[in-house]
Design goal:
By secondary structure, the chain is α+β, with helices and mostly antiparallel strands. The protein is built from 3 helices and 5 strands.
Length: 82
């Protein structure tokens, strides 16, 4: 899972883009493939995503190289130029 500067976390799980937007201390909005899915406890959801990433370690490497990550970063107005 990658943490962005604007209290947003992104990850790729089983080919789906998962985005968590932190609302308050322990609440977050959950988006899967850019569709709003609900609000939940941040610590529990982040823990479950981390477990899924450990079960499939190859998804992290593929996610870093995937252009979907860069599209997501561009939507949050972060300069990704190297």
């Amino acid at each position: 899972m990658i943490r962005l500067l604007d209290r947003t976390y992104v990850s790729l799980i089983n080919g789906r883009l998962v985005k968590l937007v932190l609302l308050s201390d322990n609440r977050c909005e959950i988006y899967i493939n850019k569709e709003f899915r609900g609000i939940g406890p941040f610590d529990y959801i982040k823990e479950q995503i981390n477990l899924l990433e450990k079960l499939q370690p190859r998804t992290r490497v593929g996610y870093i190289e995937d252009s979907v990550l860069f599209q997501e970063l561009n939507e949050t107005n972060i300069d990704i130029k190297v």
